[in-house]
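Entry:
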Amino acid sequence: MTPEYLEVLFDAFTRAENSTTNKVQGTGLGMAITKNIVELMGGTIDVSSEVNKGTMFRVELELRIPEGHAYRKFWEDSGISRILAVDGEQAVCENIRMLMRDSGVVTDIVLTAEQAVGMLQRETEARCQLLLVDWNIVETEGLSAVKKLREMLPETVPLLFLADYDAKGMDEALLMQGTGVLAKPFFVTAFQEKILEMRKSQGAADTAQTAAINSLEGLHFLAAEDNEINAEILREILSIEGADCEIVENGQLAAERFGQAAEGEFDAILMDVQMPVMNGYDATRAIRSMARADAGTIPIIAMTANAFAEDEKEALDAGMDVHLAKPIDVELLKKVVTQYVSKGCKE
């Protein structure tokens, strides 16, 4: 289609005039109706075309996932395709299996902890992603039987106790890794909410652990930076993270200050590359050549606006440990420092 016709393609009663269309009857309403239908569905339709080459229509619609599909998608997103339910009452087990029937999750049921152990031993390659244990199993077989089950599965596999709200003696059981309580009677919606709750709790714990690991708290840096504004920003960033730094104006001063420092006084050196008097590469070579034990081991982190591969190679060849592009990403800096700085070296 010609560019001129594309401008009126979706108008009512319009047709392109050529040898083909002239032989075919039509009202010129087809594309106008199509556009109206798409827009009524909350979508858009676009077209691109070149004469003697072809035409492409693009329709975008936002469609709801059918309820049944959304239900199955929850379990897929949770990474749960198989669960094991352990309950001394056959009727309860069958009820759990029936309620989980439309989820797409395979539900294995056994009546005792001993049977569950046997199943896990036999099916090493198709183990469950969640263990559901009725509290009556603990009351009849003892907590040690459930602990054995817990030990057979990875810590990432949740273990939920199906229990009455007033069940006694659960404190010790809940000390086991990855355990929780699901109130009786068994409802799939409550089951889903509990899984989301445990995932959220685990995510928060992982985030806190990562933050603790990637912490700059208490570290002391030597920084070489000739730009006063950049130096002040760097000092402020490190201060917010609980670290401090001593800043010098060029590479020569950085090498001299390190040479005068007590061993272990600095945890790492943040080295700008482009500086007057002595650049960061030469300063790094000077530090690495010093006759002191920590000269070859102290982490030296390059900071430069040049982010090309050859710049990184030059930094590494000079003896720097890692190359960070400016402006400095604080989270990346924390990860790098964690990787290269041994916090226990001064203790």
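The two ends are 77 Å apart (CA to CA).
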